[in-house]
Protein: TMM79 protein
Organism: Pitta sordida
Amino acid sequence: LCPCLIYGAYVFLPFDAPLLPTVSARLVYTLRCAAFATFPIVLGMIISGISRLCSSALEPFGELQREVEIHRTYVSQSVNLFILYFFNLAVLATYLPQELLKLIPLLTGLFAISRLIFWLSYAIGRSFRAFGFSLTFLPLLAMLLWNLYGMFILEPENILS
């Protein structure tokens, strides 16, 4: 489903990436796009704080209720995945040709939407969370493989430069 979503968005959404001739311009573009991917994480922190305040627990450091634990786990996992996603997205931006830089905001949007889907499905039941997690993890895995291919096969002489 991930390749179909990305391809459909790439073909049918009417925008193009700006002209980014240098690596530093591409990294700044990626950084700006990645700022939008923090929206679900910040929203999760807000909801986690509200659920903790509204929790009926008398012991603040005691056992967490299920509602509080869901949001806390979601935020923790999302932060970890965002770090991996962002670093792979930044490396990917350095290897992509100009005409494919439209993938950077599309992958960022997919990350944000998939984390929200994961959160919703995790709240419904733990057995349903695999779909949202795979929408996050499989593009991350594809980016990692492409980055390794780019570093070791396409440009092995520039691996550290």
